[in-house]
Design brief:
Number of strands: 24
Pathway: Carbohydrate degradation; glycolysis; D-glyceraldehyde 3-phosphate and glycerone phosphate from D-glucose: step 3/4
GO molecular function, one term: identical protein binding
Shape: globular
Strand order of the largest sheet: 3-4-9-10
Helix content: 25-40%
Distance between the termini: 31 Å
Radius of gyration: 27 Å
Structural class: alpha/beta
CATH class of the largest domain: Alpha Beta
Catalytic activity: beta-D-fructose 6-phosphate + ATP = beta-D-fructose 1,6-bisphosphate + ADP + H(+)
Cofactor: Mg(2+)
CATH architecture of the largest domain: 3-Layer(aba) Sandwich
Protein name: Phosphofructokinase, platelet
Largest sheet: 4 strands, mixed
Length: 716
């Protein structure tokens, strides 16, 4: 929430608005006084890394009454506040919409009581409202992710990873209870991310006799050599008769039926706390800016809207349409929220049911999430009836053949989801320098080698996020979290030091994604990248800008850079040290390969699992379509694809068509969506720059039906 508050304040000031904090939520708006204070640029410094909300939040019975809303309206009119940005759940947003609907009558009543004059009534005749959804449950319709969900998943996965080590040692079964009274998103996605053996969610009560089915499955898993079981229970889970399924009931059942040593862990409010993840900081920053733009464009006829995220695209949706869909979901148990795809993926990975031989391998540098993708591909492949093979050590293992080709079974990939690096092994070679290029070369080689006339699909996996044909790559989110966590610690190290600037070097080669998006999430003042050329005059302007900021209450600054053969990290460090003498001192940090290591983030685990499952289903479908005359023969360009995220959807794209989109010399796409975030980053760092609103969200309507699975080059 703090990242959203920061973005709203700074974007509001950038467009010339006067921005106010309303402390303690609706209660502060009703009480007025010191609860409503003007916000300055410096008011939101050092907020990004703080969990919770620094302006406070409180449940308010008074706002539910007409008298309370009348007081709130009076307090806003006194300060000429006519635009309200509300960050909260469906209850908070519903209250905001009611407040807007009553606004004219509230003003009339205040006028009649003599609390405001006619001029104030005219000046404040319209109230515009934009909402941002803050909810760890991800239980709001119309958005794929709500603010706080990814951070809550981080807390859950941290606990699960820690528990799995003790469970492995003592051969224990652990039952974990997570939040989710009406929505099982946290339970379901954490089950995907940790490879849980069983999950209970409110939306999908288990069939009668589930006790026997679960115990049988747990027993089978142990018989295959596993030393632990993980069961995840959403707090609102019930059976078909509406009886509550508690974590203690599940524990007693396992002990009684199987005799396994079983423990219960209830995570509780741990899930709400802690430092926000990189994803949440970026999501909230983008939503905050979008909310200000929506308020600026609002008119008397514009309905109150919610700023949402669909795929990688910001959209605006009518607030009450979203709220009504959420209410319908609660009443009907209608499974139309964003976890629908997660559920189908979990089913594929949990239950086994014309066989082909299918191989899986990793290429390029290791990226977090690769192992989750391999596990998913292997298990979905086995479920589809295939014989699965693992190719060790990438293309080196591919050409060495028999020694590095091994059949891989269901149990061989157990526990892989949370493992970092590449358990199959991967080595750099000329063929894998750009991942899409590797499949492209094999596609071209079909003319000379008929053996390559088989379906081929590549999943983007690189921390640099430089694969053409996709907005997001596996491993980038984990790397961003590593960068952000390190930047947080670096800034904290200077908490007792007056005015210090840090120069931080990230990885990425010629692609500035990590530097730019990491800088946005960490609150960097300046980011230098290859894609945006700069010269000595730009460096001088940056130093002067930072010097002016340091003369205020701002006492720390950060700059990031990733690629320039002349203006190196050492050069920039020395320049800032010299030019800032007497105002600030300077330190440099090269983050290095720590950006490539560590356990995968929940996003990368989930993303890898889902795209590998989709790719495997595409492989199966393409194999069947290509099977003629007793053999597989696939030589069309649609049979060699990259599966990537394009704005709102996952799309299979022929690699032959990506050739024109690629800068092969610098190994980057010619068009990169994240470059549009750079003006946003500069605005939030107090630079005077222009902001392109052509890509901002437009008001849409909520739809209930998701796009269906489809063939090549169409949305899934």
């Amino acid at each position: 929430m703090n990242a959203a508050v920061r973005a709203v304040v700074r974007m509001g000031i950038y467009v010339g608005a006067k921005v106010y904090f309303i402390h303690e939520g609706y209660q502060g708006m009703v009480d007025g006084g010191d609860n409503i204070k003007e916000a300055k640029w410096e008011s939101v410094s050092s907020m990004l890394q703080v969990g919770g909300t620094v302006i406070g939040s409180a449940r308010c019975k008074d706002f539910r009454t007409h008298e309370g809303r009348l007081k709130a309206a009076h307090n806003l009119v006194q300060r000429d506040i006519t635009n309200l940005c509300v960050i909260g759940g469906d209850g908070s947003l519903t209250g905001a919409n009611l407040f807007r609907e009553e606004w004219s009558s509230l003003l009339e009543e205040l006028l009649q009581q003599g609390l405001i004059d006619e001029e104030a009534t005219q000046r404040n005749s319209e109230l515009h409202i934009v909402g941002m959804v803050g909810s760890i449950d991800n239980d709001f319709c119309g958005t794929d992710m709500t603010i706080g969900t990814d951070s809550a998943l981080h807390r859950i996965i941290e606990v699960v990873d820690a528990i799995m080590t003790t469970a492995q040692s003592h051969q224990r079964t652990f039952v974990l209870e997570v939040m989710g009274r009406h929505c099982g998103y946290l339970a379901l996605v954490s089950a995907l991310a940790c490879g849980a053996d069983w999950v209970f969610i409110p939306e999908m009560p288990p069939e009668d006799g589930w006790e026997d089915n679960m115990c049988q499955k747990l027993s089978e898993i142990r018989s295959r050599g596993s030393r632990l079981n993980i069961i995840i229970v959403a707090e609102g889970a019930t059976d078909r008769q509406g009886q509550h399924i508690t974590s203690d009931f599940v524990k007693d059942l396992v002990v009684r039926r199987l005799g396994f040593d079983t423990r219960v862990t209830i995570l509780g409010h741990v899930q709400r706390g802690g430092t926000p993840s990189a994803f949440d900081r970026i999501l909230a920053s983008r939503m905050g800016v979008e909310a200000v733009l929506a308020l600026l464009e609002a008119s008397a006829n514009t309905p109150a809207c919610v700023v949402s995220l669909v795929g990688n695209q910001a959209v605006r949706l009518p607030l009450m349409e979203c709220v009504q869909m959420v209410s319908m979901f609660v009443l009907e148990t209608d499974m139309r929220l964003s976890f629908e795809n997660n559920l189908s993926t979990y089913r594929l990975l949990s239950f086994r049911k014309s066989s082909f031989n299918v191989a899986v391998m990793n290429v390029g540098a290791p990226a977090a999430g690769m192992n989750a993708a391999v596990r998913s591909a292997v298990r979905v492949g086995i479920t589809e009836g295939h014989k699965m093979f693992a190719v060790n050590d990438g293309f080196e293992g591919f050409y060495k053949g028999q020694v590095r080709f091994n059949e891989i079974k269901w149990g061989d990939v157990g526990g892989w989801t949370g493992q970092g690096g590449s358990l199959l092994g991967t080595k750099r070679c000329w063929l894998s320098l750009l991942q899409a290029y590797s499949i492209l070369q094999l596609y071209v080689a079909r003319a000379d080698y008929e053996e390559f006339c088989i379906p081929m699909c590549i999943l983007p996996a690189t921390i640099s996020n430089n694969v053409p044909g996709t907005d997001l790559s596996l491993g980038a989110d984990t790397s961003l979290n590593a960068i952000v966590e390190t930047c947080d610690r670096i800034k904290q190290s200077a908490s007792g030091t007056k005015r210090r600037v840090f120069i931080i070097e990230t990885m990425g080669g010629y692609c500035g994604y990590l530097a730019t998006v990491g800088g946005l999430a960490a609150g960097a003042d300046t980011v230098y990248i290859y894609e945006e050329p700069f010269d000595i005059r730009d460096l001088q302007a940056n130093v002067e800008h930072l010097t002016e900021k340091m003369k205020t209450s701002i006492q720390r600054g950060t700059g990031a850079q990733n690629c320039n053969e002349n203006f190196t990290t050492d050069f920039i460090y020395q320049l800032y040290s010299e030019e800032g003498r007497g105002v600030f001192d300077c330190r440099k940090n090269i983050l290095g390969h720590m950006q490539q290591g560590g356990a995968p983030s929940p996003f990368d685990r989930n993303f890898g699992t889902k795209i590998a499952a989709k790719a495997m289903q595409w492989i199966t479908r393409t194999l069947k379509e290509s099977y003629k005359g007793g053999r597989v023969f696939a030589n069309s360009e649609e049979t060699a694809c990259l599966l990537g995220m394009r704005r709102r959807t996952l799309v299979f794209q022929p690699v032959a068509q990506l050739r024109d989109e690629t800068d092969f010399v610098h190994r980057i796409p010619k068009e990169q969506w994240w470059l549009k975030l750079r003006p946003l980053m500069k605005i939030l760092a107090k630079y005077k720059t222009s902001y392109d609103v052509s890509d901002s969200g437009q008001l849409e309507h909520v739809t209930r039906v998701r796009p269906k699975d489809s063939n090549t080059s169409t949305a899934i």
